[in-house]
């Protein structure tokens, strides 16, 4: 169905934001749903009581699918369009969800999770880009915080779904229903998607300027027309931005990996760093397997583990909104440094409590898990998804962000793969590893990462041209600036690539 101008203004923007929100919720739900069911007796009976290695394979191959889906999205998004790509990704996920729900063998479950991951990888690249290109950008940091919070909400939703369906034991419905519930989100997306417009920026890139102008007018208000000066100015700004990108061209891979005067390879490594910080903080070592973490580390029952995991997820969602109020004012470096230091402290306390192994220490262990998620959401989480595009030069931005996304998914795959086995065989030593990594992020961030808050792409170009030896002197946010048309144009150039990073949540 081709979009027609039936819904306009705030209702249209709200509809796009709502569907994007459903996509973010689905992403969070998918990350948590296997952890919610993998410990259920009916699941373990169905798959012959999988050992820790098989648990890691079933869980981690989803992330491997996301990795390939993200690569597919970067290669095909310009051809299919943002909305078209989301439709394709959702249909792939529908097939994967059906195969997961009907699985009777571990090989079918593993392959179907790879397929679901491919669809989700496509969506988590294109949904944020589509949203960013359809809205005026006022505060890119705040927008990413909101999206992070919606993803966080998916975790407790999947946990409570597993807790509720557990009552159906010994029927396999207990684990099949939470997995099948992914289809609820997909049905909403696929029903509403045809009634929404394509990204106006993508339309301009493909010389469909007249259609793009109609979309700009529809997004503005019910009474806006294609001849309004404001609409014409907005269209011309995007056209100028697209023309500039065409003139610059896309950098080759060899240029991306060459230092040169723009310090390309330095920026690629710095941009990939926060993605790696996110994963090697240990967050998904806990998030993917939170119920069985409580079961196997401190001996809680399956039901109580699910309840505590669900409550933790709700708190995680609520506190993840807090950076909205301070991330632009405090700056990326400050929140990252304090977040990493706090996460390291929590992991050290987790190790101590596991070694003490008393009833009191077990509940302190639970409290430290709560605190770890909170502190992670205040710094590492939002910064990791915005930093790369804020330091990449325009010419190498797409490939640089793609490398960062790839590093994220491969790290996620590795961590989720070895976590079940590590819980059984390493014990508290697993959390020492995460404590060391988080502690290392503090000096790395302080010495090597320039501050990007309230700085334009041109500002960052100048900083990298003047700092030749890696140790940064740019450690405070830029001066406050009033929004202008030129600022808005620059933000429109930066936002799409910034939002591509959501593919790596």
Which spans of ≥5 residues are poorly predicted at pLDDT below 50?
482-505
Number of strand elements: 0
Major sheet description: none
Structural class: mainly alpha
H-E string: HHHHHHHHHHHHHHHHHHHHHHHHH
Helix content: over 70%
Shape: globular
Number of helices: 25
Mean pLDDT: 84
If you compute it from the alpha carbons, what radius of gyration comes out, rounded to the nearest whole angstrom? Answer: 23 Å
- As a percent range, the share of strand residues is under 5%
What's the arrangement of secondary structure elements?
Layout: H1 9-37, H2 41-46, H3 52-80, H4 82-101, H5 106-134, H6 140-165, H7 173-180, H8 182-192, H9 200-205, H10 209-220, H11 229-248, H12 253-256, H13 264-280, H14 283-287, H15 290-298, H16 302-319, H17 327-330, H18 332-356, H19 359-378, H20 380-384, H21 387-391, H22 397-425, H23 429-448, H24 457-466, H25 485-500
Helix pairs in contact: 1-5, 1-6, 1-7, 1-8, 1-10, 3-4, 3-5, 3-22, 4-5, 4-7, 4-8, 5-25, 6-7, 6-16, 10-11, 13-22, 15-16, 16-19, 18-19, 18-23
């Amino acid at each position: 169905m081709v979009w027609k101008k039936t819904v306009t203004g705030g209702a249209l923007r709200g509809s796009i934001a709502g569907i994007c929100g459903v996509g973010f919720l689905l992403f969070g739900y998918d990350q948590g749903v296997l952890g919610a069911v993998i410990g259920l007796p009916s699941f373990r009976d169905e798959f012959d009581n999988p050992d820790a290695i098989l648990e890691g394979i079933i869980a981690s191959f989803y992330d491997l699918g996301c990795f390939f889906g993200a690569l597919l999205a970067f290669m095909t998004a310009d051809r299919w369009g943002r909305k078209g790509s989301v439709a394709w990704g959702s249909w792939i996920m529908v097939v994967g969800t059906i195969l997961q729900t009907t699985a009777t063998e571990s090989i079918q479950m593993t392959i179907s999770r790879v397929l679901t991951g491919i669809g989700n990888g496509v969506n988590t690249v294109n949904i944020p880009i589509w949203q960013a290109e359809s809205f005026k950008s006022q505060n890119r940091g705040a927008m990413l915080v909101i999206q992070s919070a919606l993803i966080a909400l998916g975790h407790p939703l999947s946990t409570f779904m597993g807790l509720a369906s557990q009552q159906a034991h010994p029927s396999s419905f207990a684990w099949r229903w939470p997995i099948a519930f992914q289809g609820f989100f997909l049905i909403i997306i696929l029903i509403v998607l045809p009634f929404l417009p394509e990204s106006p920026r993508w339309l301009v890139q493909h010389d469909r300027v007249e259609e793009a102008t109609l979309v700009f007018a529809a997004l503005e208000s019910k009474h806006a027309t294609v001849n309004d000066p404001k609409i014409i100015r907005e269209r011309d700004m995007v056209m100028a931005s697209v023309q500039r990108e065409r003139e610059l061209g896309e950098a080759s891979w060899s240029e991306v990996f060459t230092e040169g005067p723009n310090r390309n390879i330095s920026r690629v490594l710095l941009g990939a760093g926060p993605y790696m910080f996110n994963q090697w903080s240990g967050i998904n070592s806990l998030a993917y397997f939170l119920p069985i973490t409580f079961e196997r580390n401190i001996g809680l029952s399956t039901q109580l583990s699910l309840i505590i995991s669900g409550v933790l997820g709700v708190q995680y969602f609520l506190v993840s909104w807090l950076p909205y109020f301070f991330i632009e004012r405090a700056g990326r470096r400050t929140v990252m440094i304090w977040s990493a230091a706090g996460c390291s402290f929590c992991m050290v306390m987790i190790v101590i409590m596991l070694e003490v192994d008393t009833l009191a220490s077990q509940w302190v262990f639970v409290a430290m898990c709560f605190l770890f998620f909170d502190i992670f959401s205040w710094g590492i989480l939002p910064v990791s998804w915005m930093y790369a595009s804020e330091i990449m030069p325009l010419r190498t931005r797409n490939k640089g962000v793609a490398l960062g996304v790839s590093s994220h998914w491969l790290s996620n795959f590795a961590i989720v793969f070895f976590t079940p086995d590590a819980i059984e065989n390493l014990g508290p030593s697993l959390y020492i590893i995460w404590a060391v990594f988080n502690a290392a992020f503090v000096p790395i961030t302080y010495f090597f990462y320039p501050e990007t808050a309230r700085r334009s792409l041109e500002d960052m170009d100048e900083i990298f041209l003047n700092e030749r030896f890696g140790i940064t002197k740019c450690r405070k946010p830029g001066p406050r600036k009033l929004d202008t048309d030129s600022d808005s144009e620059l933000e429109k150039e930066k936002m799409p690539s910034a939002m591509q990073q959501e593919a790596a949540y």
